[in-house]
C-alpha cells in the first residue's frame, strides 16, 4: 500500500508539458472563436470549395463566374471587381485557386472518413495547423535544449515554448483565419515537422548510417510543405543539403553517402514538384503557372529591387500602434511615411495599406537571434584559427549544433525571399519568418546563458530571458483581439467592451 501511495502522487514527467500545451491551445480557441469557444466566425471557405471540386472530379471550384463578367472585354480589370470571386484565378470560364492543393486534399479525406456533408470553414484548417505547429515546435525546443545545452535547467524550455506559442503574428492570424493564413501556417508545420525528424537523423548519425525510413519521413514532410505553399521549395532544398551533409560522418565515400541520403530526403519533393507541374498544366495549360497570372485582385503582385530595403525595414522594425485603451497594441493600416525613418523616400506606387508591425518590436524574443548569429560566427572564427582544428563531424553535439543553427537560419530567411521585393507588405507574411526566427532565438538565448558562469550575471541573463519571453507573449496575446478585421470586436462586442472598460487606463 505504501508503494501504491508513493506512485499515485507522482505524476508522469510529461504531464506538465502536455498541460502547458493544452492551455495554449485553449487560448488559441478563445481567440479564433472571439471568446465564445462555441461559435467560430468564418472568413472564407476556399479550401472546402476546392475539396468539393476534387470530390466532383474537376480541378476548379464549384462556383460559376457571373456571365456578365465573362462577357466583359477584360474581366481582370479592377472596374469589374464587384463581380469577382476575390483572389481566385479565372481561366477558360472557371475559377481556380492558386494556393497549394494539399490542405484541400487532406480536408476532403477528413470529410470522407468522418462522413461530413456540411461546409468546413478555413478557420478550422488554420486552428489545426497552428495547433500542430505548436506541438512540433515544442518538441524541437525540447530536443534542442536537452541535447545541445544539457547543462541548463530543463524547465527553461517552457520559457521558449511560451515565446514560440505567441510570437507575432500567431494570434493576429488566428483572429482572422482564412485560406491565406492556412496555406502559410500549414507549410510552416510540415517544414518544422521534417526538421524534428531530421534532428534525430543528424543526432544519431555517429552511431551508424541513418535509417532510410527517417530520411524518407523527413523528405515527405518537406514535400508536403511544398504541396501547401510552393515557396517552401527554397528552405526544403537547404534542409535536404544540410541534413545529407551533417548525417554523413565517415570520411570513406563521404560524398557518395551524402548524395544517397540527399536522394532519399529530396526524392519526395521532386515527386511533388512533378505532380504540381502536371496540376498546373491541366488547369492553365502551362507547367509553371500556378494561377497568379490570372488572379482577380486589385493589387497585383509586383516586385522590384527598389522595394527590398523598405520591405526589410517594415518586416523587422515597422512601428507598433500603441494606445492607452485595450487592447493597447495594433498593426497600423496606411501608415505611410510615418512608418519609416526620416529621409527615407517611398516610391509613389509603394503601398502601406495593409497592417503590419515589425517582428523585432512585436516579438522582442527574436532579438536573441542576433546573439545566435554572434555565437555561431565566433565559433566559426575560433574553429578556423585553431591548430589543429577540432573535427566537427565526429563530435555529435558540435555537428548537431551547426546543423541546427544553419537549418533555422534557412527557415527564417528563405521562405520570405519570395515577397521581400514586393510592392506591399502585410502582417501574415511575418509567419513565414517567425517560426525560424523564434527557434533561432532560442539557440541564441541558451548560448548566452551557457556562456555565463558566475551566479549573479547568470541570474541577470535568466531575468532578461523571462522578460523577453513574457513581453513577446503579452504583445502576441493582445494582437489576438485585433486581426485584419477586428473579429473579436464585431463577433463578441459585449466581452470586448467589458474588457475595454475594465483594462483601459484612459477614456
Q: What does this entry look like structurally?
A:
The chain is mostly helical and 507 residues long. It is built from 20 helices and four strands. The N and C termini lie far apart (62 Å). The model has no long low-confidence stretch (mean pLDDT 92).
How would you write the strand order of the largest sheet?
Answer: 1-2
Helix content: 55-70%
Distance between the termini: 62 Å
User: Topology as H/E string?
Assistant: HHHHEEHHHHHHHHHEEHHHHHHH
Biggest beta sheet summary: 2 strands, antiparallel
Strand % is under 5%
Number of helices: 20
Average of pLDDT: 92
What is the number of independent domains? 1
Q: Work out the oligomeric state of the chains in this entry.
A: single chain
Parts with pLDDT < 50 across at least 5 consecutive residues? none
Radius of gyration: 24 Å
**Broad shape:** globular
Number of strands: 4
Write the layout of secondary structure elements.
Layout (H helix, E strand, L loop, with lengths): L1 H7 L6 H18 L13 H10 L11 H4 L18 E3 L2 E3 L5 H12 L8 H27 L7 H11 L3 H6 L3 H25 L8 H17 L4 H14 L7 H31 L23 H10 L3 E2 L6 E2 L28 H4 L5 H18 L10 H19 L16 H20 L4 H25 L7 H5 L1 H11 L4
Antiparallel strand pairs: 1-2, 3-4
Helix pairs in contact: 2-6, 3-5, 6-7, 6-9, 6-17, 7-18, 9-10, 9-11, 9-16, 10-12, 11-12, 11-16, 15-17, 16-17
